[in-house]
Structure formats: C-alpha cells, structure tokens
Amino acid sequence: MRVLAASDLHLDGAAADALISAAGAADLVIVAGDLADAHEGLAGLAARLEPVAARTVMVPGNNETLEALRAATSATVLHGQAVVRGGVTVAGIGGGIPPLPPQPWGSWDLSEDTAGALLDGIGTADILVSHSPPAGLGDNHAKLGHIGSVAVKAAMLRLAPRLCVFGHVHDCWGAGGTLGPTEWRNLGPAPVWFDL
Questions:
Q1: Burial class (CB within 10 angstroms; exposed 0-12, middle 13-18, buried 19+) of 62
Q2: Cα pseudo-dihedral 49, 53, 58, 62, rounded to 10
Q3: In 3D, which of 175, 79, 90, 84 has the Cα closest to residue 131?
Q4: Residue 88 CA from chain centroid, whole number
Q5: Quick one: which of 55, 117, 118 has its CA closest to 88?
Q6: Distance (Å, rounded) from C-alpha 109 to C-alpha 62?
Q7: What is the DSSP letter of 40?
Q8: Which of 27, 89, 125, 193 is the most exposed place for a label (fewest CB within 10 A)?
C-alpha cells in the first residue's frame, strides 16, 4: 500500500494542491490535523481537498474541532476510532495533547487522561495517526520544550503499529525514526510517502 501523508496545512493552498497532485499515486491519503488556522478557513481548505476525500483519513488538529472537521469534509475523520482501508487498520486521535498554554483563539486540546481513555478503546492498528506527537519523539517546541503526549506514546508502544504519523510541533517537521517495530514521523505540510 502506498500511503501519502501530511499535517498542519493551516490554510496553505499550495500545500493542499501539492497533496492533491501527488495523491493520484496513493492508495491512502492521511492528514494529521490542522487544516484550519485558529478555527478559521476550515471549510474552504477542506473543500479544496474533496477530490481525494474518498481515499483520505483525517484527524482534527488543535486548530479545528472534531465536529467542525466532520462537517467540512466527506473524508473519514477518526478520533479514538479505527477504520480498515485496503486491509490496513488505521487508528487516529486528534487535538492538542496535552493542552497548550491558553491561546487567545481557543486551541482544541485534550487532557492526557481523556486521550488515554480514547486510545485504550483501540485494539489494533497498522497505522496510528495523531495530531500530537508521542512524548519525546519529534515534539521539541522552540519555546515550550518537549510537548508530546504520554498517552499517544503509550498507545504507540501497546499497539506497535508499523507507522505512527503526527504533526503539531512545527519546529520538528520532518523529524522521524523508529521505535521498536514502529516507524514514526512528524509530517508537516509537504507530502510524505510511505510504503506498507
């Protein structure tokens, strides 16, 4: 399976167009949150991605809510759920985990306990999609330090997916590696290819 993935488009039309252009060769497209910017502009960017929505799985970021994203797209939107695509189980969780310091625009965040409860309901995953990074992996924010999620990392270790993709921490876009059997990557808005 050829997987194309990106995160944190933040209303970037050129990044959306690049994703659509590359998606012709993809079996599965993943968007790991933050299409919008401070809860603005979601509908327009989501509409721009509709040509590939049938093959797309998304999670909400902290710049849009679950309800807003589901209302804006026909793509599959996961939050504490999994779906099977082409024999591959994709699980996902959205939002900022743990919560960021208060933002004037109202970041959509989850506590570690809430995220952990949602992730505990997932029994298996070949791909884990999270907006927030697992703690200690691609999560070093220039001003706030390491802001990854303990709950996401625990789920990654428990589920041992082949791939874990995320975004959220712009300072670490492109960072990646492996932990046990899992390849992980902080995506960013440029399309990234994976072969499963």
A1: buried
A2: 30
A3: 79
A4: 17
A5: 55
A6: 6
A7: B
A8: 193
Note whether 15 and 35 are within 8 A (CB): no
Q: Which of 87, 86, 184, 74 has the alpha carbon at shortest distance from 132?
A: 184
Bridge partners (DSSP) listed for residue 76? 57
Q: Which residues contact 174 (CB under 8 A, 6 or more apart)?
A: 185, 186, 188
pLDDT at 103: 86
- Nearest in space to 161 (alpha carbons), one of 188, 140, 185, 138: 185
Quickly tell me which residue has 């049938």 as its tokens. 54
Question: Which residues are 192's β-sheet partners?
Answer: 5
Question: Which amino acid, residue 16?
Answer: A
Residue 1 has pLDDT above 90, yes or no: yes
Residue 69 token pair = 């994203």
Section 27-32 average pLDDT: 98
